[in-house]
């Protein structure tokens, strides 16, 4: 019977990433910057490995370091091992394509004012798939968070390896209660209380620049979130900058009006995924449904606010 035993943990494995970075850069300082550690922490990690092996991994000359033959051999193995570990962790983090749960992250205002009122239709057509909603906006790490899908207003950079599916182009303009516009405001935006949100503080300025409007409000009020400003407009508390599709249902039902029209903001709403839609049947089903809802919303918006034909 073979009496050879493998001593697991012979090397301080926690020190390997520091060694690999230092060896790859042949610089302790650059390794420290990459791993967000101190130069001393990199030096101690390398020293731990050298002490265990009993050999030098680097030759230190004139404040620079160079790999020894032993260091070159260990770098090759460490790089392969860490890459394999990264691949395994990524596979673990990705959801099982057969899971009955689809994890969707969506911007809060969009989720509450547009997506969730329509989500019942998806559930009726897909009773075997439970959509788990997460409210979040801005940049998203799909792998770390475990989200299958993120729906975002693309006003930030997206990693090159994400699959980006366009949904619609955003339109925006002042919105308020129709009766207030005709009576209290006398069809004059300068008579209005302008509602602002701290999550989109530039909304009014962007619209004024795009429209050429140079008037000032009678008064102003600030809310912590865009959703609250829109709801305040519905509740006749003032006039907010509303965007499509967030106010499409209110406009169609007559709860709000957009007396100055709507104009493109230059931002698009998109769906973000890690893999192509064909790889995961759950994502494909949701994406197909979402595309249909997006098309329906775009048709409603075009009917309400037809854009001029391109010359």
TrEMBL record:
Any Pfam family hit: LysR_substrate
Keywords of the record: DNA-binding, Transcription, Transcription regulation
InterPro entries: LysR-type_TF_proteobact-type, LysR_HTH_N, LysR_subst-bd, WH-like_DNA-bd_sf, WH_DNA-bd_sf
HTH lysR-type domain location: 11-68
Key word Transcription present: yes
TM spans (from-to): none
Homology family: Belongs to the LysR transcriptional regulatory family.
Protein name, UniProt field: LysR family transcriptional regulator
Organism: Thalassospira marina
